[in-house]
Design goal:
The chain has one domain: Immunoglobulin-like. Helices cover about 15% and strands about 45% of the residues. The chain contains one helix and eight strands.
Length: about 140
C-alpha cells in the first residue's frame, strides 16, 4: 500500500512540474521600465519633451508624449494610447530598445475642452503603465 502511495505521489509531482514548466514560455516578463514620461507641443533634438505640460489650448496642432525606456532588449514593444475621458482616440505601437521614444496626437479640428490622457505601457506581463493626464481649455 505504501509503495502505491509513493508512486502515486511521485506521478503527481512530476505531472505538476510538467504543467508549470509548460506554462513558463507563456509568461512575458522583463526588467524594462519607463521613466521621465512627458507631454509637450515640440520635441528637442534628441526626440524628448524638454518640458512637461498639463494644459493645452483647444487649437493645439500636435501633442507629443515622450518617455525614456530603460533596461530594454531589442524589439521591446511599447504602446501609447490617447484618450478623451474613457474614449480611445487612437493607439501607437512602437518597437524599441533602451532610449527615448515618443508618440504624437494630431487632432483634425479644434479639440473639445475637457480631460484627456496618454497611457504608455511596455507590453510585458509585469509592466506598470504610466498615464499622463492633461486638460484642453
Amino acid at each position: 500500500m505504501k509503495k502505491h502511495l509513493i508512486v502515486l505521489r511521485s506521478v503527481f509531482v512530476f505531472a505538476f512540474l510538467g504543467v508549470v514548466i509548460g506554462m513558463l514560455p507563456a509568461c512575458n516578463v522583463s526588467t524594462a521600465n519607463l521613466s521621465d514620461v512627458k507631454l509637450c507641443t515640440s520635441k528637442g533634438s534628441d526626440g524628448d519633451c524638454a518640458d512637461d505640460n498639463s494644459k493645452f489650448p483647444a487649437d493645439v496642432q500636435v501633442i507629443y508624449c515622450s518617455a525614456s525606456v530603460n533596461n530594454a532588449p531589442a524589439n521591446t514593444k511599447v504602446t501609447f494610447e490617447w484618450k478623451q475621458g474613457s474614449q480611445s482616440l487612437g493607439k501607437a505601437n512602437v518597437e524599441t530598445s533602451s532610449g527615448i521614444i515618443s508618440s504624437n496626437f494630431t487632432p483634425n479640428t479644434a479639440m473639445e475642452p475637457g480631460t484627456y490622457s496618454c497611457t504608455v505601457k511596455i507590453e510585458t506581463d509585469n509592466a506598470k503603465p504610466v498615464t499622463k493626464e492633461f486638460t484642453v481649455e
